[in-house]
Design a protein that fits this description.
Elements: E1 21-25, E2 37-41, H1 42-56, H2 66-71, H3 73-79, E3 82-85, E4 88-90, E5 92-94, E6 105-111, E7 114-120, H4 124-129, E8 135-138, H5 144-163, H6 165-168, H7 171-188, H8 193-203, E9 211-213, H9 224-227, E10 229-235, E11 238-248, E12 251-258, H10 263-274, E13 279-287, E14 292-294, E15 299-302
Antiparallel strand pairs: 1-2, 3-4, 3-8, 5-7, 6-7, 9-12, 10-11, 10-13, 11-12, 13-14, 13-15
Helix pairs in contact: 1-5, 5-7
Length: about 325
């Protein structure tokens, strides 16, 4: 509202009690261009940041060459590249200087920035015997759960930043905020990260089709937090959802957020997530603070429900 406040009603927990607050970035600050923030409870923001966003931010490293990952100590620590020989994984470490112990095998990878020296934890005679084998450097990290949860939270905060409590206190805002994100926090706060991630796989399964990557070449929009552009989903003159676009550096993600005021809209939202339909008719819409400017004709958006990289798909 542009004025100092004395109470903060959390749009995730739906509580107004004594709690430390913080300036929470809508999209994690490590992503280039992420500058918008909103007030949030620090315990909620830290929980989702520690468990999910701390891994999701590694999506910005997608496309790095394996030798670049090997040569960068920080990237190696986060992405854990592996040396694989005929499907067998060989433990290794980077040798900055000095000799390789006799019981290990020296190995050099010709990287873009120069050679990278490794010590393979196998006997040199065994390495020689594998000279004609299929050698690979494998870099992989499963970001599906961190991506799904982080993007749902970012979309919720985007809507709260844009519309305030008109959204947060609406039936759709209550569903995504209190019933999904808030309940998960209350149930899992204080547990270990592995336990929380394991719990998230089943907990968020019903929302797996709410998040989709936007294909390269279709990403001319800057993200809703920056340009206030969304896609409004309407069926039979009933608003049931809004597609919020989340920009993470060079990647763009679409999040289908529940936006409804009655049981009909709620039914349409649930039916789409659980049903077989892989197309959405939606109007590209710009929010200008006091009005919505929507395209007259809807756009038909492909919304595949298989092989898109999020868990359960």
């Amino acid at each position: 509202m542009g004025e100092p406040f004395h109470h903060f009603y959390c749009p995730v927990l739906f509580l107004d009690d004594e709690a430390e607050l913080c300036k929470a970035h809508i999209v994690n600050a490590v992503f280039a261009g992420s500058t918008r923030w909103t007030v949030q409870r620090k315990d909620v923001d830290n929980f989702y940041g520690h468990v999910f966003e701390s891994d999701f931010v590694d999506i910005r490293h997608r496309g790095h060459r394996p030798d670049d990952v090997l040569a960068d100590l920080e990237l190696s620590k986060r992405l854990r590249p592996q040396v694989v020989v005929d499907g067998r994984r060989i433990e290794h470490y980077v040798v900055a200087e000095g000799p390789v112990p006799n019981q290990y095998s020296p190995f050099v990878v010709d990287g873009r920035s120069g050679p990278v020296r490794l010590a393979l934890k196998i006997d040199p005679t065994e390495t020689m015997a594998l000279e004609d084998a299929n050698w690979q450097i494998l870099v992989e990290k499963d970001l599906r759960i961190p991506a799904l949860v982080s993007l749902l939270k970012a979309a919720h905060l985007t809507m709260f930043d844009m519309l305030g409590y008109r959204y947060a206190l609406s039936p759709g805002g209550h569903l995504l905020g209190r019933e999904v994100l808030g309940e998960f926090f209350l149930t899992n706060a204080g547990r270990s990260k592995p336990d929380v991630l394991a719990s998230a796989r089943d907990y968020f399964r019903n929302l797996v089709h709410a998040v989709r990557p936007v294909l390269d070449g279709a990403s001319t929009l800057r993200g809703t937090a920056a340009d206030r552009m969304v896609y409004m989903c309407r069926t039979r003159s009933v608003n049931w959802g809004m597609i919020v676009l989340i920009r993470t550096a060079v990647s763009l993600h679409a999040v289908l957020v529940p936006v409804f005021q009655d049981a009909v809209g709620a039914q349409l939202f649930g039916d789409f997530l659980s049903g077989p339909d892989e197309r959405i008719e939606a109007h590209l819409t710009k929010y200008e603070g006091d009005r919505w400017l929507a395209a007259k004709e809807p756009t038909v958006l492909a919304w595949p429900k298989v092989d898109v990289g999020y868990p359960g798909a």
